[in-house]
Amino acid sequence: MGRKMKVQIFGAGAIGCLFGYFIQKAGFDVVFVARGKQLEALQKELRITGLIDDSISIDARRYACKADVTFVTVKSYDTQTAAEQLAGKTEVVCTVQNGIGNEDILTEKVDNVVGGVTSYAANLVDYGVVCYAGEGITYLGDWKGEGASVVAEILKKAGMNVEVVEDIERKKWEKAVINATINPLTALLRVENGKIVEIEDVWNVAESIAKECEEVMKAMGYKLNAVELVREVATKTARNRSSMLQDIERGRRTEIEAITGEIVRKAKELGVETPVNELMLRLVRGLECSILSS
Ligand SMILES: NC(=O)C1=CN([C@@H]2O[C@H](COP(=O)(O)OP(=O)(O)OC[C@H]3O[C@@H](n4cnc5c(N)ncnc54)[C@H](OP(=O)(O)O)[C@@H]3O)[C@@H](O)[C@H]2O)C=CC1
Ligand SMILES: CC(C)(CO)C(=O)C(=O)O
């Protein structure tokens, strides 16, 4: 390509701004799509704190424009709107969102869809201010058409850890199992991730959730030690407040439908019983209802 590649971040919140920051610093032409007070703040500057301390001027806009590659970094309940705005506007779309189903929604509107899972961590501390909380790795894989190698090249040039994998669907489900176990419990009990392992009664429930998820993955043809995986992640991220807990504390919707909701839906399709996950789904829905209506 003779001209500079144009990269777009659709949903310039915590993780989108972090990715966009690294990509712009590497010399790419980056557009950040945001809304409301976040857009107003980003039109002045993007500030990164935490592991980095820097401020940059960015091209922040309200609506999607034409781009070579677009990262979709909205919460999963906003993916449909993102897909509609991106139709005919981007050669490749890549999602690093948590949850199941985002890639399939994007597939309806864009020809080349790259699935992704990231363990980079970022929090929005104020409008236009993002705390870079943890270095991680991003796994990518072609979902529809091609694009994973192009996206990986962009992230590599941006100095980020990235790996293209054969089976991105498996990676997405593994992350969903971690989120389905840690996120609802931390949100319902309002505790940091480490408490899931530390409090015996809670760990018993976590084990039940993880074992049900393991059965669903088994029925899908994937072997996984879900209990050990969850124990490892909860221990490593012991001081984190999970994204679902943060959503509840901010009085916002959660991604429960794209996480536990999708696991329960897949379980029904495959004839697997998931009573504890169903309970978590109902309780978090109830919690959302109570905070959104108060
Ligand atoms: N933060 C992290 O460390 C990680 C996040 N993820 C995943 O990445 C995704 C994004 O998470 P995160 O960055 O934390 O979430 P944020 O809420 O911080 O960011 C999403 C942003 O997208 C904006 N947005 C939504 N719809 C539109 C639209 N139509 N036009 C313009 N802007 C829009 C939101 O605006 P508004 O606030 O007005 O809704 C918000 O600013 C989630 O799926 C999450 O699970 C995965 C790994 C790590
Ligand atoms: C891995 C974990 C649980 C880390 O907090 C996460 O992805 C989240 O909070 O959504």
Automatic annotation (TrEMBL):
Gene3D superfamilies: N-(1-d-carboxylethyl)-l-norvaline Dehydrogenase, domain 2 (1.10.1040.10), NAD(P)-binding Rossmann-like Domain (3.40.50.720). Residues 8-144 form the Ketopantoate reductase N-terminal domain. Pathway: Cofactor biosynthesis; coenzyme A biosynthesis. It catalyses: (R)-pantoate + NAD(+) = 2-dehydropantoate + NADH + H(+); (R)-pantoate + NADP(+) = 2-dehydropantoate + NADPH + H(+). Coiled coil: none annotated. Residues 167-288 form the Ketopantoate reductase C-terminal domain. One of its GO terms (molecular function) is NADP binding. One of its GO terms (biological process) is coenzyme A biosynthetic process. Its EC number is 1.1.1.169. GO terms for cellular component: cytoplasm. Keywords: Coenzyme A biosynthesis, NADP, Oxidoreductase. It is an enzyme of class 1 (oxidoreductase). Belongs to the ketopantoate reductase family. Catalyzes the NAD(P)H-dependent reduction of ketopantoate into pantoic acid. Catalyzes the NADPH-dependent reduction of ketopantoate into pantoic acid. NCBIfam families: apbA_panE. This is 2-dehydropantoate 2-reductase. It comes from Archaeoglobus veneficus (strain DSM 11195 / SNP6).
